[in-house]
Amino acid sequence: MNRQATNLERNITLTVNGERVTRSVAARMHLVDFLRETLGLTGSHLGCEHGVCGACTIRVDGLTVRGCLMLAVQADGATVETIEGLTDSSKAADLQEEFLNRNALQCGYCTPGMLMTAVELLDRNAKPTREEIRDAISGNYCRCTGYHAIVDAIETVAKSRSSKKGTAS
Amino acid sequence: MYNFNYHRPKDLAAAAALLQANENAKLMAGGQTLIPTLKQRLASPSDLIDLSDVDGLSGIERKGKHVQIGAMVTHAEVAASAVVRRAIPSLAELAEGIGDPAVRHRGTIGGSVANNDPAADYPAAVLALGASIFTNKREISADDFFKGLFETALEPDEIVTSVCFPVPVKAAYMKFPNPASRYALAGVFVAKRAKDVRVAVTGAGESGVFRVPAMERALDKKFAAKSIESIKVGEEGLVSDLHAQADYRAHLIGVMARRAVEAALKAT
Q: What is the DSSP letter of B231?
C-alpha cells in the first residue's frame, strides 16, 4: 500500500463541561465513546449508536447533536456540554425535578438526552405548544413512558418559568 | 467502523488534492448519513476528508433573483435564515422538517444533495425549483444532477460548493413523513415559476426524485388543486417496502401534490 503519512490517530483539544482537555484519539472513535470511555463521563448514553434513538444527545458549540453521529476528531476545538455539566450548572434543575414529579422517566435511559433536548427547546421557545414539544423530542426515543408524562413535565416547566419571569418584571 | 485517515483541509484545492491522491477517500460534510454508513461497514474509506474547515462553503446570500446556499450550510441554518424565509419560505419550511433538531444542527444541504437519498427532502426542492449545483469544477442543473438511487452527476473528485435556487413566484412542499425517521414516504414540492410549473416527488421513486409532467402541464394551465384531481401517478417504479406499498405511495403523491398547491396559493 502506497499510503501517505497516516492520520489514524489525532491529538484533539476541546472544552468539555468548562474544562479544557487534550487527548490522542483514533480517527474512528465517536464522540460519546470518547466522553464515556476516555473521560469517564457516562451520563451520555448509547442506545442504538446509529443516530436513531437520541440517548446520546449532547451539546456541541451550544447546539444539540447526536453524540454517536459525530467523531471525536470532529470535536477538535469545540465546546461540549454533557448532562454532567448541565446538572452542575443547575440550568436543568427545574426540569429534572419535574421529570421526577411527573414520572417522566422509568428506566431513565433516555433521560439525559431528553433533558438536553428539552433545555435547548426552552432556551429557544419559552412557551412551546404541546405539539412543538413533541416535535422537538421526536428524535429522543423513550420506550417506557409513552411520552405523555415527558411532554407534561416540559410544559409545566415552561409555564412556571414564564410565570416567574412575569412576576419578576 | 474500520479506521481511516482523517483530514481536515482548510481550502477547496487541498480537499480536491486529497480526494485525487486517495482513490478510496470519502468526503464528509455533516456526517449524518456517512457515519452510520461507516458503522454498518457499508463503506470503508481509506481516508475521510472533513469539509468543515474548508473556506467558502458557508453562508446564505440573496443574489438578485436567486438564493445561493453554501454546501456546508446546515438544515437548521436554512430553516432559521431570514433571507430564505423571505425569498423561498417553502425551502425554509422543508429544512425545518428534516429529521429532528439534533440532525438539523449537523446535516448539510451539500451533503444531502450529493448523497441523493431517495427519501431525502432537498432533492425535491432542488429539482422543482430548478436549482443549480455548483462544484469546484462546474455548474450542474438540477435536471442533469440526480441520476438515480444515491447516484449523481458528480465525478469522483468533484466537490459540491453551493446550491443556487431561483426564487419562485409561489412554492410549497408537503410530505407524508415516516413518523419515526421523518423521512418522506412521499414528499411533493410544487413550484410555480415565472414561465412554468414544476412538480417533484421524493420518497416514493425507486430511482429517487422525479418530476410529474402531467401535473406540471395541468398546473401550467390553471394553478389550482382541482387541476390535478384526476391525475393518477402509476405504481410502476414506486417503492414498496415495510413502510408503504407502491399503490399507497401513488395515492399519497396525489394527496401531497394537491396539498402543496393549496399551501402555495395560501402562502402568497
A: P
